[in-house]
Amino acid sequence: MTRLTHVKHGPYAPPVAVRELAAVSADGARLHVETHGPREAPTVVLVHGWTCSTAYWAAQVRDLAVDHRVVVYDQRGHGRSPASAACTADGLADDLEAVLAATLAPGEKAVLVGHSMGGMTLMAAAGRPGFQEHAAAVLLCSTGSSRLVAESLVVPLRPGRLRTWLTRKVLGSRAPLGPVTPIARRILKYATMGPGSSPVMVEACARIVHACPARVRHAWSHVLDSLDLDDGVRRLTVPTAVVVGTADRMTPPVHARALAAALPDCVGVSELTGVGHMSPVEAPEAVTARIRELVAMYVRAGRDELEEAGA
């Protein structure tokens, strides 16, 4: 299980959950789940990415939980969810379905938000009955559906075999990241964040990423390397918004534009100037505002229509 290290104070310190529970996936894997905010409020489900944890969403949880019910969970092997030998896109979809079943009432709709591998989780689950039962709308943050290694700009070389090979070696490294040092912060900022990201933002991300065990990071890097969820994008028929940073080296804007072109119901692409891969941390207000818009349009509006029909 991951060492739990994160900032203790400020906007990126994780709030205390209203409730903690365990969801059990199809293969028996146990997932740490938290809920925040009022029980009867509209629900938002936040799905974190590779090497992260529930702590990644601290800024969104703190803001949204005032008037939303917010569900967050640790992907298998991350945070407080034990590691599993099964690391697959289908496993990610199974896990999401288990979390939705454990936290939402039958037929209850929610806005589902995924960052990086979390977005890929939503794509992988798009055709699943549990997803279709509960998804009112989706927000895909800093993510892509295929060619992740080939399109990555982390290694500053021209596109081609050498860059792809080096990127695969960097992202798939088995080496532990060790303590969060000034050098480690500079490396993480270069690879995953925009040049203008503040020291507070970098520190928050570094603590979370460095807490992920090397074996977990390595295992999931292979899944991301071979990932092809283009078909999943076409199955994502609910209204879907896309957010990407213009300085994202991990999943550059070419992915966001490809998603927008393939999505059956794309409701907008937001390109955040100067923001890197960690968009929910680097641009928390913009990401949270987009989530609120989706809730207002596709969850609250639906509730109002049902209440009017009942009246």
Automatic annotation (TrEMBL):
Sample GO molecular function, one term: hydrolase activity
Keyword field contains Hydrolase: yes
Pfam families per record: Abhydrolase_6 (PF12697)
Source domain of life: Bacteria
Domain AB hydrolase-1: 44-289
Assigned keywords, A-Z: Hydrolase
Protein name: Alpha/beta hydrolase
Organism encoding this protein: Streptomyces gottesmaniae
